[in-house]
């Protein structure tokens, strides 16, 4: 899907925060305000949907469904105390999970690292693993292969990476959105980062081997 950027939007709207654009749209039906919201966030929302369903055609359908719901629900279910993008992401997440469940491809994975503990989750992690994985993810962010490798993660790990890395959601919100504990969300993020690091290392090794063979 080639997402369209609305043109001819006044610079005044481009300088406003999301909450102001939402207010203009809700109070006055201001189409420019809504178009600016779309311009800002549609690529990330579509990328999340596509990363979960793996089909451009179905991602298009879900994306359209999501924004139909957004338009119809903004007047009665959106709470302006919260972030608009977080509210939209809940709608996108729920629509995506509904699709996956209908396809009988979604399985809730019970976590064997989600046991009650009196210690903080991060206290039980080897710091160098988490830091190294995070640094690797940041270094490789600009590479076109990033989304490909994210697509190779399990659905549960893919969710938390997209929500945390692209939408900067707090782990508490991610846990609530995905209906798991904070420990589970943190654990999925940790293993996702470790797996991404391994995938990038494997890719680098393959590139080096290919270069050596050509030499």
From TrEMBL:
A GO molecular function held by the record: DNA binding
Record-annotated RNA polymerase sigma factor 70 region 4 type domain positions: 147-184
UniProt cross-references to Pfam families, sorted A to Z: Sigma70_r2, Sigma70_r4_2
Gene3D superfamilies in the cross-refs: 1.10.1740.10, Winged helix-like DNA-binding domain superfamily/Winged helix DNA-binding domain
Keyword annotations from UniProtKB, A to Z: DNA-binding, Sigma factor, Transcription, Transcription regulation
Residue span(s) of domain RNA polymerase sigma-70 region: 37-105
Superkingdom to which the source organism belongs: Bacteria
GO BP field: DNA-templated transcription initiation
Signal sequence interval, chain numbering: none
Protein family membership: Belongs to the sigma-70 factor family. ECF subfamily.
Name recorded for this polypeptide: Sigma-70 family RNA polymerase sigma factor
Organism encoding this protein: Fodinibius halophilus
């Amino acid at each position: 899907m080639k997402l369209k950027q609305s043109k001819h939007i006044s610079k005044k709207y481009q300088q406003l925060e999301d909450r102001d654009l939402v207010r203009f749209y809700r109070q006055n039906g201001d189409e420019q305000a809504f178009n600016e919201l779309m311009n800002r966030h549609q690529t990330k929302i579509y990328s999340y949907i596509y990363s979960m369903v793996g089909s451009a055609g179905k991602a298009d359908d879900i994306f359209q469904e999501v924004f139909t719901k957004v338009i119809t629900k903004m007047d009665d279910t959106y709470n302006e105390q919260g972030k608009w993008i977080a509210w939209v992401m809940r709608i996108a997440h729920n629509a995506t999970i509904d699709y996956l469940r209908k396809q009988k491809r979604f399985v809730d994975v019970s976590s064997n690292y989600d046991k009650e503990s009196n210690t903080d989750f991060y206290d039980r992690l080897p710091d160098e693993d988490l830091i190294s994985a995070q640094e690797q993810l940041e270094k490789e962010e600009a590479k076109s292969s990033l989304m490909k490798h994210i697509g190779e993660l399990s659905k549960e790990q893919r969710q938390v990476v997209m929500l945390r890395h692209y939408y900067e959601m707090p782990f508490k919100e991610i846990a609530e959105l995905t209906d798991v504990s904070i420990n589970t969300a943190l654990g999925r993020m940790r293993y996702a980062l470790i797996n991404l690091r391994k995938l990038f290392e494997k890719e680098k090794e393959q590139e080096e081997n290919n270069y050596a063979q050509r030499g």
